[in-house]
C-alpha cells in the first residue's frame, strides 16, 4: 500500500480542529480528510471557506465505528492521523458522562486499533514516516495549589472530572499502542485554548456573547480559579511542530504562560466589549458579572510547563493573551451569522439546564 500526501484529522469540524485545518491548508502542501461525526460541537460551516478546495474533504463518520474508520484509512492512505475528536465540555461530562467514555475512550481505542492495522500493511519506508498524533489536555494532571510548580510531562495523572478521566484513559491507550505494538504515537497535552470558532458553551465565547447582549455573566464559585490560556493558532503551530519533529512515543506539554483568574478574564472581556460596542442601555458590562453555584470538583488552577517543546522543537507561543483576546472578541462581533447558526434548540436547552440549576440552587 502506498501513502498519499494527505493527513486524516478527526474532529476537524470542532473548534481547534477547524482552526488546525485552515492553517494546515495555508502552511503545508498536504491534503486533509476530516473524519467528523458532526455532533452538536461539530459545525461544517467552520470550514465552508474550503468547500471548493480540492485539498479538503469532509468524511462524516464516527470514530467508534471500526469499519468506517478502516474504510477512510484505506481510501485515503494518509501519512498521519491527527486525533482531535472528543466530547470536550467538562460541565456536560459531569451532567452525563456516558458519551465521554464512548467517544474519548472507546473511540480512541478503535482509531488506534484501525491505525495499527493500516500501519502494519505499509512498506518499511512508509511505516517509518507514518505518525499518530493524539491531542490531549492538561486536565489529566488534576489541580494545582497556588504555589505548586506547573505541570510537566512527568507530573502524575490525577484527573478530577469524567471528561479529564476519559482523556487520561485515552492517553494511556495511546501510550500502550506505542509500547505494545510500536505504532508511532505522539501525545500533546495542552492548556485552555481560545479563539475563533469556539462553541459558546465555553467560558470565553459565552462571556463575549452574553456581554454583547447585556445578559448576566455567570462566574462559577469565587471566580479565582486559574486557567493557563493559549491562542488556538499557537496550539495548531505546536501540533505541526510535534508532527514534523517530535520524538515518537513522547508526550509534549503545550501552554501559553498566560495564567489568569476567571474573574480577570471576564473583566477584560467586559472592557473590550464596552470599547467595541458601546451601548447606553447596557452601560458598563462589568456590572453584569453574577457569581453562581460552583462546578462540582472544580479544579482550582492549571499551569503548563512548556519547556520541553520549547527546548526540543523550538516552538513558542506567538500571541500575547491581551492581543489574542482582543482578536477573539472582534471575531465574535464580526460573525453574527455564525453565532446564530450554532445557537440551535439543543444549545439553548443546555444553557437553560446548566445555568437555571446554578442560579436557583
Ligand atoms: P470541540 O468539542 O469543539 O470539537 C470536537 C469535535 O469532535 C466536533 O467536531 C465533533 O463533531 C467531533 N466528534 C465528537 N464525537 C465524535 C465521534 N464519535 N466521531 C467523530 N467525531 C466526533 O472540541 P475542541 O475544543 O476543538 O477540542 C479538540 C480536542 O482538543 C479534544 O480532544 C480536546 O480534549 C482537546 N483539547 C481541547 C482544549 C480546549 O481548550 N478546547 C485544550 C486542550 C486539549
Ligand atoms: O485545560 C484544557 C481544557 O480547557 C480542555 O481540555 C477542555 O476541553 C476545555 O473545555 C477547557 O476546560 P475548562 O473547564 O477549563 O473550560 P471552560 O471554558 O468550561 O471553563 C473555564 C473556566 O471558567 C473554568 O474554571 C470554569 C469557569 N466557568 C466556565 C463557564 C462555562 C465559569 O466561571 N462560568 C461559565 O459559565
3D architecture notes:
The chain has about 350 residues and is an alpha/beta fold. The protein is built from 13 helices and 13 strands. It has helices at about 15-25, 65-75, 90-95, 100-120, 125-130, 160-180, 205-215, 230-245, 260-275, 305-315, 320-335, 335-340, 345-360, and strands spanning about 5-10, 30-35, 55-60, 80-85, 130-135, 185-190, 195, 215-220, 225-230, 230, 250-255, 260, 290. The strands form four sheets. The protein has a seven-stranded parallel β-sheet, sandwiched between helices. Strands 7-10 form a two-stranded parallel sheet. Strands 8-13 form a two-stranded parallel sheet. Helix 1 (about 15-25) links the parallel strand 1 (about 5-10) and strand 2 (about 30-35). The protein starts with 5 loop residues before the first strand and ends with a helix. The model has no long low-confidence stretch (mean pLDDT about 95). The structure holds nicotinamide-adenine-dinucleotide (NAD) and 2'deoxy-thymidine-5'-diphospho-alpha-D-glucose. The site of nicotinamide-adenine-dinucleotide has 29 residues, from helix 1, helix 4 and strand 5.
Amino acid at each position: 500500500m502506498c501513502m498519499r500526501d494527505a493527513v486524516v484529522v478527526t474532529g476537524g469540524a470542532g473548534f481547534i480542529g477547524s482552526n488546525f485545518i485552515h492553517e494546515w491548508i495555508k502552511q503545508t502542501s498536504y491534503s486533509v480528510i476530516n473524519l467528523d461525526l458532526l455532533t452538536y460541537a461539530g459545525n461544517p460551516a467552520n470550514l465552508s471557506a474550503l468547500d471548493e478546495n480540492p485539498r479538503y474533504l469532509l468524511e462524516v463518520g464516527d470514530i467508534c465505528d471500526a469499519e468506517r474508520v478502516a474504510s477512510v484509512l484505506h481510501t485515503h492512505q494518509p501519512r498521519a492521523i491527527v486525533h482531535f475528536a472528543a466530547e470536550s465540555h467538562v460541565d456536560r461530562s459531569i451532567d452525563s458522562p456516558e458519551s465521554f467514555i464512548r467517544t474519548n475512550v472507546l473511540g480512541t481505542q478503535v482509531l488506534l486499533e484501525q491505525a495499527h492495522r493500516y500501519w502494519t500493511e505499509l512498506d518499511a519506508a512508509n511505516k517509518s514516516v507514518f505518525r499518530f498524533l493524539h491531542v490531549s489536555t492538561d486536565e489529566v494532571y488534576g489541580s494545582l495549589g497556588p504555589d505548586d510548580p506547573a505541570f510537566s510531562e512527568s507530573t502524575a495523572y490525577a484527573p478530577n472530572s469524567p471528561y479529564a478521566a476519559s482523556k487520561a484513559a485515552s492517553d494511556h491507550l495511546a501510550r500502550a499502542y506505542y509500547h505494545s505494538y510500536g505504532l508511532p504515537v505522539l501525545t500533546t497535552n495542552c492548556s485552555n485554548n481560545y479563539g475563533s470558532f469556539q462553541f459558546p458553551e465555553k467560558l470565553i465565547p459565552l462571556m463575549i456573547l452574553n456581554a454583547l447582549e447585556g445578559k448576566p455573566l455567570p462566574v462559577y464559585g469565587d471566580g479565582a480559579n486559574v486557567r493557563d490560556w493559549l491562542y488556538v493558532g499557537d496550539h495548531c503551530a505546536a501540533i505541526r511542530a510535534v508532527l514534523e519533529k517530535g520524538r515518537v512515543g513522547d508526550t509534549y506539554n503545550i501552554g501559553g504562560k498566560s495564567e489568569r483568574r476567571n474573574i480577570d478574564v471576564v473583566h477584560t472581556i467586559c472592557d473590550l466589549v464596552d470599547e467595541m460596542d458601546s451601548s447606553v442601555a447596557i452601560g458598563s458590562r462589568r456590572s453584569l458579572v453574577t457569581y453562581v453555584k460552583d462546578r462540582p470538583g472544580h479544579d482550582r488552577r492549571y499551569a503548563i510547563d512548556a519547556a520541553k517543546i520549547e527546548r526540543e522543537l523550538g516552538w513558542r507561543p506567538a500571541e500575547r493573551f491581551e492581543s489574542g483576546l482582543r482578536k477573539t472578541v472582534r471575531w465574535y462581533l464580526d460573525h453574527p451569522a455564525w453565532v446564530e447558526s450554532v445557537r440551535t434548540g439543543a444549545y439553548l436547552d443546555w444553557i437553560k439546564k446548566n445555568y437555571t440549576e446554578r442560579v436557583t440552587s
